[in-house]
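User: Structure with cytidine-5'-triphosphate, tokens only please.
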Amino acid sequence: MSRSPRVVLAVSGGIACYKACEVVRRLRDHGAVVRVAMSRAATQFVGPTTFAALSGEPVVSDLFDHPAPHEVPHVRWAEWGDLLCVAPCTADFLARMAHGIADDFPSTLHLAFRGPTLVAPAMEDDMYRHPAVQRNLRRLVERGVTTVGPNSGPLASGRVGPGRMAEPGEIVATARRLLAGGSPQRWLDGRKVVITAGPTRERIDPIRFLSNRSSGKMGFALAREARLVGGAVTLVHGPGPGSLGQGSHGTLAAPSGVRAIAVESAAEMRTATLREAADAAVVVMAAAVADFTPAEISEQKIKKNGADSLQLRLQRTVDILAELGGARAAGTEEASGRESGAASPLLVGFAAESEALEKRALDKLRLKGCDLIVANQVVGDALARSGIAADDNEVVILGRDGSRESVSQRPKGEVAVAIWDAIRRQLLSDNG
Ligand code: CTP
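Assistant:
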């Protein structure tokens, strides 16, 4: 496309409207021209003037209040846009889209629009779980609409659960993906992909554990992108922040269409990952797996009993990535649970390093038998802006064939796009 990409952003009325302002700003940062169509309810949350100033384009919020109604603006806007993005998409707007109801400017525009459509649902958790909403979402997905989010987290009501609109960075990353290909090329074509995400928790006693700062955001972004490009995705994830216990996703909701397996300890992650890797085409180990676990778990709460210090004896966990890579190198398929004769999955590791980033990452790539390794710096400034627990990441992707790609700081959703592009190149070169 030689001209700038054009996005029509339809904004329906919910508290997440304030985040739609950031979506406009970020889309423009990436060179898109953005026009905003607002529902009546949306104007109760953010004024059209704000969107007009942020977009530098006219904003329409009333079907009958357009300066040139003879131009049939909903049809003109539908012809103008390359992408329709609905963010936030309320339960009501979702229902109107699903049923083809056209009773205001954005919903009329939706029916007139013929290009790729992206929807970022935002509503209370109980509304999101309601069968009517789920059915409407399924209808849209079956019609080829792409969804992003919602995430789990604090909601307008003060409750915590799924329904929180995806972050602007995730929405923009998906929008760019749709703009780049018209619709994302589904090159993974149903092949199985296993992705690990988040920290593990190693139990000390009934109420205490050892863990790390990983949020799982990078692994979840990789899962979302793998799904967009047509993978059959299994996400093995440790407990994220806000997780109340085993089986809870914490503040991240598994992307739609992704099979999620919640685990807690490194040992549980190993069992699930080896089992799932047996028939996978690609395994991406983005999890921050604990290297050590308490040698014994105390069945009872450990008491102070007047002691000044406490010694915990830790023992090494099994390195899952090395086990997968080693089994492949040694040709011992049984060790990794693979059926004899099954092709090995392409193996992608991560390397979190606080010094000598690329050298150490390359050592890990060789030692663990990976095809690609994604190196990120976890010290000082770099740690605060990007990497573990942050929304952004900044990585170097190194290949066993000597390839090197540096990915500057950007939202994790966009880093995931770069990682899947590298995986795709590697798969193509492996197949000659
Ligand atoms: N990994 C794994 N199983 C473990 C530990 C790590 O599969 N028990 C994987 C991680 O998922 C990651 C890669 O190994 O893909 C590198 O993890 P990292 O924490 O960077 O390094 P370690 O191998 O743990 O080495 P070190 O702590 O010495 O840096």
